[in-house]
Amino acid sequence: MRCPKCLLCLSALLTLLGLKVYIEWTSEPRLGKAYPGPRSTPPGPTPASPEPTLPANLSARLGQTDPLPSAYWNQQQWRLGTLPGGDSTEVGGCRAWGAAAAAEIPDFASYPEDLRHFLLSAACRSFPRWLPRGGGGQVASCEDPDVPYLLLAVKSEPGRFAERQAVRETWGRPAPGVRLLFLLGSPAGEGRPDLGSLVAWESRRYSDLLLWDFLDVPFNQTLKDLLLLAWLGRHCPSVSFILQAQDDAFVHIPALLDHLRALPPSTARGLYLGEVFTQAKPLRKPGGPFYVPGSFFEGGYPAYASGGGYIIAGRLAPWLLQAAARVAPFPFDDVYTGLCFRALGLAPRTHKAFLTAWPADHTTDPCAFRDLLLVRPLSPQDSIRLWKQLRDPQLRC
Ligand SMILES: *[C@@H]1O[C@H](CO)[C@@H](O)[C@H](O)[C@H]1NC(C)=O
Ligand SMILES: *[C@@H]1O[C@H](CO)[C@@H](O)[C@H](O)[C@H]1NC(C)=O
Prior knowledge:
Layout: H1 4-27, H2 29-34, H3 72-79, H4 93-104, H5 113-121, E1 150-155, H6 161-169, E2 178-186, H7 196-206, E3 209-215, H8 221-235, E4 241-246, E5 250-251, H9 253-261, H10 265-269, E6 272-277, E7 304-313, H11 317-324, H12 333-344, E8 349-350, E9 354-355, H13 366-369, E10 374-375, H14 380-390
Parallel strand pairs: 1-2, 1-4, 2-3, 6-8, 9-10
Antiparallel strand pairs: 4-7, 5-10, 6-7
Helix pairs in contact: 4-5, 6-14, 8-11, 8-12, 11-12
């Protein structure tokens, strides 16, 4: 050997390389196991495609193959071409879809009231914006140098003023590349207090409320997703990512931004990220939460990210809208989003730092939160306390 130093260098280099491979190999599996994505599949000629596609017939994608259950949703999805358009004021159209559903489901009359209301209007998805009387409260479009990297789209309800204010004062504060919007239904409705003038004031003061004129009830939450997607297409088509969260969530924005910026482009392009449920099934206890009658839906839910908070790639917005026009309505917004992603051939990615059912005894412990990206539910008071503690330079964990 003419160069003993070279040999030494070479063996040191090889050791380092081995170490790097070992570290990468040992630090990947948990993320990859449930949803082998491009990051965890071994390098090969055909990495999993992050590109959405929408086949002419969605039955196979949505698992509706022979023998088909007789439940309404399954039958409907099998037959469905495109849901009728139009708004609820038109005769026929979307209302006719609901009336046909009611007529076809043998035990419709025994369904819980909210599910009956949902089905009757489920195909009606076009609602006008609710704007304060006397003007003002306009939500600005994304303007060219200021196109957000991350849009925080927070589902709230008109009466939840304190929850919205806590978000504005904590994790939703103005930050470079980040924009905050709240999604709400109408502040008035039959049998409810009229919050119109209070919400109008708030809307003028903050210009961050996207309101639409539909009844803001749990089974109408999918309308917020769909109307937001349509709004984005017109007013913010180039946003990179959208966080869909509830107003009782708490999000570690700087850590989330770091995570998103570090994603390989192939992952980022088809992103649907959150706390993913893969084995969920409809609950069959009448009167219980999330009850789904057997005559309405049979089978398991698609893999979906918990609606407490998840991220999607902005470029998927028009794809999701197209998918939604062809996926039969389902009452739970997060399951419905899962169905639409499945229709597009995209799988959710799970992240262990999204905890959408965080135990209440942890909610005020800043050390427990330090390595997390999103938790809920937190009260407005707990959000503010946690925010202060996290910014305290004295914090030792
Ligand atoms: C999808 O394909 C199945 C047969 O594979 C067919 O029976 C069904 O009607 C098709 N659905 C639509 C919407 O074309
Ligand atoms: C959703 O809102 C529409 C429009 O206000 C209403 O007709 C429908 O009954 C609401 N859905 C439910 C489940 O209450």
